[in-house]
Amino acid sequence: MFDRSSSSIKTAFFIRVLPLFFLTSVCFLIALANYELERAKKDHRNDLQKTTHHIAELLREPLWQLSERLYTEILSAALNRSEIVCVRLIQEASVSPPVERGECQNQYHDQESFSTEIYYDLGGKKAFLGSLIIQARVSDGWATIKRQLYILASLSVVLFILLAGATLAAFNSAILPPLRHISASLKQLQDTGQRQPVNWSSPDELGDLIRVYNGALRHQTIIEDKLEAAREEAEQALENLQHAQESLIQAEKMASLGSLVAGVAHEINTPLGNSLTITTTIGSSAERISTKVANQALTRHDLNIFISDISEASAILERNLQNAATLVRSFKQAAVDQTSEKQRNFNLKRLVEDVLYTLQPQVKRTGFTFQVEIDDDLWLTSYPGAIGQIITNCVYNSLRHGFQDRDHGIIRFATIDADTRHVVFTISDDGCGMSPDVLHHAFDPFFTTKFGQGGSGLGLNLVYNLTTTVLGGTVKIWSEENNGVTLSFTFPYTPHAEAKG
Ligand SMILES: Nc1ncnc2c1ncn2[C@@H]1O[C@H](COP(=O)(O)OP(=O)(O)OP(=O)(O)O)[C@@H](O)[C@H]1O
Ligand SMILES: [Mg+2]
User: Fold this and answer.
1) Core-most of 68, 256, 313, 398, by most CB within 10 Å?
2) Is residue 191 a part of any domain in this protein?
3) Locate the Histidine kinase domain: which residues (predicted)?
4) Which one has a higher pLDDT value, 66 or 400?
5) What mean pLDDT is reported for the chain?
6) How much is the pLDDT for 263?
7) What residues line ligand 1, using a CB cutoff of 6 Å?
């Protein structure tokens, strides 16, 4: 905290201005004293010169009349003036020798000589009578001006006090109140964030400052209101976006389920078609045999052929129906898993194979193959639906993006035991890979390089969310251009119940 009394503007002003004023007054007094001293000395000299003339006037008559007693008396009387130390009268040598009164031997530095010549007027003609020289102490004049200086100094002190008082009053009435108002308003702004306009008006610079300050406060309030409105709008937009994202994710789920159904229906068609053909063949064979039996034309050979056809047909039928049954089982499991979000105990390898089975139609009769390198005995108590969705999305991505413009490729599924509680499951392809920029944004919602071509950009975001929230794990992605993509999932064998989002 500052010591307000020592750091106030008032103190700063007094510290800076008053000594200046004091020094100016002292200099002014000294200059004035000097001037007055010189003037007093000059007056004194004039005065002494006049006195010399005056004495000379007085001496004229006695000198003319050669009245020695009179003029020596006048000379002695001249010494009555305290500053006159010596009076010397030099007459024409023929008349008499010089007459001196007072101390005329030495002339000290504070003494000066004043002289004048004495003439007698003889009706237009002047007769020289002699010279008068007065030696006198010229006073330093200090005594004369001392009083004046005392008055001046007292006046200065009074002026000084008046000026200080007036300055103080000016500060207290015109400068400090508006400053205190501004300071209080700023403090309120700092402490509570409240904008309190300053209630002060004056036609000076401080008034201008307060007007500008109030204007700035108003302006800031308007800007903040606008910002608040923009923030609310942004929040609303974000909420809408989240809703849109949720419905898109739901739509994505349904779409993948739809394509699963379409694929399985297509797959089931083949064994069912085969079975139908076989049953038709069996039907016509049975009809042929029954005709022969009715006509009593049935031979042992016919019966043997019929039996062999029937057993071959039943083998084919069994194979085809077995295929259809397997397909239905996988489909049922995958469909149930993908629609329900139940935690259950399952074998990871079998789950992967079931899901891939449903995806077979996508790769059949193409150069793309699946490669599963998962331990047969790897059992998890987790969410198979989430893992199924992850696999489906990754396979679709490899087929759509990684193997775009290619006719062959491998999608590999593998696991390693990370530790006793976690498994690391990787899905990789050897496709075209991602550029660093795509890699950087791969998990971002709505990021797709297939915008306008059916890509919503939610696939990998869904993969990320399922891994982190449902499976309670983490996912990392590696990729280089032309070097495929690897997604590595680390998740617990048994996610805690609370990990499910
Ligand atoms: N295996 C892959 N190989 C190359 N690029 C990939 C691969 N998987 C994803 N990508 C890139 O990552 C982007 C984001 O993938 P994501 O699955 O999130 O969206 P999408 O496949 O474009 O759209 P959606 O999955 O919603 O139909 C893709 O647009 C693609 O550019
Ligand atoms: Mg995708």
Assistant:
1) 398
2) no
3) 263-495
4) 400
5) 85
6) 64
7) 397-398, 401-402, 429, 431-434, 438, 442, 447-450, 455-461, 485
How many whole angstroms from 501 Cα to the centroid of ligand 1?
24
For the stretch 134-164, pLDDT in tens is: 999 886 667 767 777 788 888 888 888 888 8
- Alpha-carbon gap, residue 447 to 435, rounded angstroms: 14
Cα gap 359→411, rounded to integer Å: 12
Domain total of the chain: 3
Task: Using CB atoms within 10 Å of the CB of residue 470, give its burial: 0 to 12 exposed, 13 to 18 middle, 19+ buried.
Answer: buried
What's the pLDDT tens digit per position in 69-104? Answer: 888 899 999 888 888 999 999 987 666 788 888 888
Domain check: are 393 and 495 in the same one?
Answer: yes
Residue 124 DSSP symbol? T
Cα(300) to centroid(ligand 2), Å: 63
Query: Which residues, other chains included, contact 3 with Cβ-Cβ below 8 Å and sequence gap of 6+?
Result: none
Q: Listing from the earlier edge strand, what are the strands of the sheet with 125-137? A: 99-102, 84-91, 125-137, 111-122
CB-based contacts of 401: which residues, under 8 Å, 6+ apart? Answer: 431, 432, 449, 450
Name residue 291's amino acid.
Answer: T
255, part of any domain: yes
Q: Does the residue 245 lie in any domain?
A: yes
Do 367 and 441 lie in one domain? The reply is: yes
SS3 265: helix
Q: Locate the ligand 1 atom nearest the alpha carbon of residue 484 and give its number.
A: 3
Measured by CA distance, the residue closest to atom 19 of ligand 1 is: 457
DSSP string, 17-82: HHHHHHHHHHHHHHHHHHHHHHHHHHHHHHHHHHHHHHHHHHHHHHHHTT-HHHHHHHHHHHTTST
Among residues 339, 356, 372, which one ends one of the domains?
339
450 and 369 co-located in one domain: yes
Distance 408 CA to ligand 2 centre (A): 19
Helix and strand totals (H; E) in the chain: 11, 11
Give the domain range for residue 251: 225-339
The residue written with tokens 């200099």 in the block is 27
Measured distance CA(110)–CA(139) in Å, rounded: 8
Buried-state track 43-66, b at ≥16 Cβ within 10 A, e below 16: ebeebbbebbeebbebbbebbeee
Identify the nearest ligand to the CA of 412 by its number.
1
Q: What is the largest CA-CA distance in the chain?
A: 217
